[in-house]
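QUALITY CONTROL LOG
STEP: pairwise intake check
CHECKER ROLE: data steward
CRITERIA: each record must contain a sequence immediately followed by its structure tokens, with no blank fields

ENTRY 1 OF 2
RESULT FIELD BELOW
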Amino acid sequence: MSNLDFTESQYHQEIKDLASDLYEDAIAENDYDHDQAEDAIFAYMLHQLVDGHQWIIYTYSNDLVARFSDNAEAYRDCYDNESIGQIVTDKGLEGMKPIIAYFAMYQDITDALYELDAFCANHLRRV
């Protein structure tokens, strides 16, 4: 999806599509070994995907990600109140928007991965 303005249903469809594509890419790049693919996803692939997504790069879309995400508070797992206060002091409230959007989208895609039949079937064999 290339539009910076999107609806809630478009957001959730994009998350599902990104999760599916991410798993397909990871499994193909790792010789169809699920364990290696999962390790690659959480070691670097998911970060690269989210960090480079236009909805994270462009501030306009950050607000929409936070509004439509099921995980808009996910950033709190990494930032305590003191850290948040420092960011706001240094960069203003605008400085928090890409952080909130990044962690929200990261967690939404993670959740979507665990809803994929192929990912779950292979993940359950590993546990």
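ENTRY 2 OF 2
RESULT FIELD BELOW
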Amino acid sequence: MKKFFIILIIAIVGLSANAQTPAIGNTFVGNNDVSANKKPVNISQQQIKHQELSLNLNNQQEVKNFNSYVNAHKNEIKTNKTAYTIPVVVHIIYNTSTQNISDQRVFEQINRTDSDFAGLSLHSMGAFPDSLKANTGITFCLASVDPNGNATNGITRTHTTVTSFSPTGGYASCTGYPERCSASGGVDAWDVTKYLNIWVCNMGNGLDGISEFPSGTLNNFYGTTIHYQFFGLGGATAPYNEGATLTHELGHCLNLYHLGTDNTCADADYCPDTPAEYGTDSTISGGCVIDLCNTTCPGIMYMNFMSYSDDAVMANFTPDQAARMQACISNYLMNVVNNATSICGTSGIQEQYSNYSVKIYPNPMTDILTIESLSQTTIKIINIQGQTIMQQKLKQGKTDFDIRGLAKGVYVLSLSSNDKSEVTRIIKE
């Protein structure tokens, strides 16, 4: 969860509106804009950790077993990374017309999340090397077939009389997730063994998002909920208007934790390549940021998608985080990913990006990939290891690519122009 149980720091030593001088405790170094209404916050990690453990595998022994599995197989997973596609359905629950967000925002969001998971964010890694911006090998596709076998665009819309949804009870229940129950004004999940469910609604209690962790037997509440204001790009509300809220919450769905600790320097997220943080900071705009656990640069990894930073600086999952998510899928979600081809379909696609209008076909492809673009852009074809296989600048119009030399498999197609980037998944047969 990006915002949960927030405690404001009342005393800030030597910190001005544009602080450049290190302060005691959680320390800011670099270009950090701290305005009167956007003070740095210290998250109560103890409360968050308890919340996540209660939502997590619901069995501490199972948590230990999973962590042991990841530790034993991490190098193997990294070396033999698997391309996974997860079918998703987005349930939009609205009380007002403003909450009934457009299909375009959903398409933008899925594309941006795919870009984030492919390691293609254009945001800076600060003082950290770009090698810590991993391609996870995981993509998401909107379902094209619903549980009854009918055609769908992967988006459902439900009007509700409920003005906002707030958790009041424990995990895996209608009181813990009222938006995930038709009986409480929400929408029941589609089959969780075939779809990853995403609910978008007006959330209460100051929440941006909340997620259920996986377990050996997925319950009907597995998935994530995102506040409608912070879902998508165009029309979303700053500072969470670049799609990182869903990316963050899907990290939880794939068994990732926050980087921050209970004000200690312990490893809170079981990923050695993410530095432990003494608490958690937000409102960071760049540079090197140090704290009591990381007293020299590169400092804390505030740009990590599992941090609490604003969307404008979020940039990466690390290789260890990618391995942990791959392990999560192979342990808990294989039936979901095995249904991707039948649920998502493999026919030609036309994507309407926030900054591009393109046609990409055929998909899957065998010999020729055709791209029709209405504007100048640069395309990259990237393999599952994160290596750029092909790169070319396109002019407006139609371009054919001979891809007979590509090995069979799943690739990421990246389109970029200036400071914007979008991605989609392509398949070579």
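INTAKE CHECK: passed for both entries
DESCRIPTIVE NOTE, ENTRY 2: The longest helix spans residues 60-79.
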